[in-house]
Every structure is written in C-alpha cells, then in structure tokens.
Design brief:
Order of helices and strands: HHEEHEHHH
Helix content: 55-70%
Distance between the termini: 76 Å
Structural class: alpha+beta
Shape: elongated
Bound molecules: zinc ion
Strand order of the largest sheet: 2-1-3
Number of domains: 2
C-alpha cells in the first residue's frame, strides 16, 4: 500500500513539474506568436475557399458552355441511357453528380454545389469524350487560332477528336501526344 501511495505521489509531483514547464512554454512570446499566426492563417484559409467558390461561380455563369458527353451510362434497371455533359471550355461537368459530395476534393465540391441551383445549358457537340482530353484539344485549338468562331472551333474539335479516337498509333507517339496536349503523363482515356 505504501509503495502504491509513494508511486502515486511521485507521479503527481512529476506531472506538476511538467505542467509548470508547459505553462512556461505556452506563455513564451514565440509560442504566442505561433498560435496567433495559426489563427490568422485559418481565417485566411476560409476566406480563400470562399473566394475560390465565388471565382468559379462567376466563371461558370459567364461561360458560353460548349458541351460534350463526358459520361454515358446505360441503366439496365430502367433500360435508359444517361448522358452527363461537360463543358470543354470551363470544365464544368454534370458527371460530378454521380459522386457523393463529401468524397470529393474542395474544387469538385464547389462544382457539385453549383448544380444545386443552376442547370447546364450550352451548345452541344454531339460527341462522347473524356472531358480532360476535350479541354486539352479545345485549349490547343484556341492557342493556334485565338480568334476562331464557334462553328470553326466545333469543326476543328470534331476533326481532332476523330483523328485521336480512330488512328492507331504506337505508345511512343501516344506519349508525345500527351505532351503536346499538356495532359497528365499517365493519361489513357483516349
Ligand atoms: Zn463552360
């Protein structure tokens, strides 16, 4: 019993000493500064997120969307084909609604939220295409022809997509095409 009491008191003493040291550290100027900066940073972080949301909403609102079918699925249950649309210019994509919002990163959650009170209208290019690839083709066309009108843009887009979809090329040439289009190096959704 005495052993237990001794051990118990020893721990209380030790903890008192440790807590005293912790308090000293907590009141040190550098640590006060650390907590102040952490608080400031967290405030700015939330402002940054809010501004990002407003910027993306403006971008989506002001884009004359040019849409492709970004995802086509056949539902065996009701025998219907569902087509999600994505804009080759601003990247908004209704296929995002197939996910659970909380599983998405913040930028995609913003896109998801946008659909809660906006519909996606725009000129539809009747083509099925991965949206990252579609945006890459679009960016290349406007880089070469900055003042191109929409009809020619659609024509060039279709032509480029057709060449990409139906030409058999070696892996080496595919890799150089990935580079040319500035796609992710592991891109494979041709
Ligand atoms: Zn758009």
């Amino acid at each position: 019993m005495t052993d237990l009491n001794d051990k118990y008191n020893e721990i209380i003493n030790k903890r008192q000493q440790i807590n005293k040291q912790l308090q000293d550290i907590m009141s040190s100027p550098i640590l006060k500064k650390y907590f102040r900066l952490k608080e400031e940073d967290s405030k700015l972080y939330f402002e940054e997120l809010e501004l990002y949301r407003r910027i993306k909403y403006n971008e989506y609102n002001n884009c004359n969307h040019l849409l492709v079918y970004s995802k086509v699925t056949f539902d065996n249950f009701d025998c219907k084909t569902y087509k999600a649309c994505g804009c080759i210019k601003c990247g908004i994509d209704s296929a995002i609604l197939d996910f659970k919002k909380n599983d998405l990163p913040f930028d995609k959650q913003v896109m998801y939220d946008y659909f809660s009170d906006h519909c996606l209208y725009g000129n539809i290019i009747d083509e099925e295409c991965d949206l990252e690839l579609a945006h890459a083709i679009y960016s290349k066309i406007v880089e070469v022809y900055p003042n191109i009108d929409e009809d020619r843009l659609i024509k060039y887009f279709r032509h480029s997509l057709k060449c990409i979809k139906y030409s058999r090329i070696s892996n080496e040439r595919k890799a150089s095409r990935v580079k040319r289009l500035s796609l992710r190096s592991d891109f494979s959704k041709w």
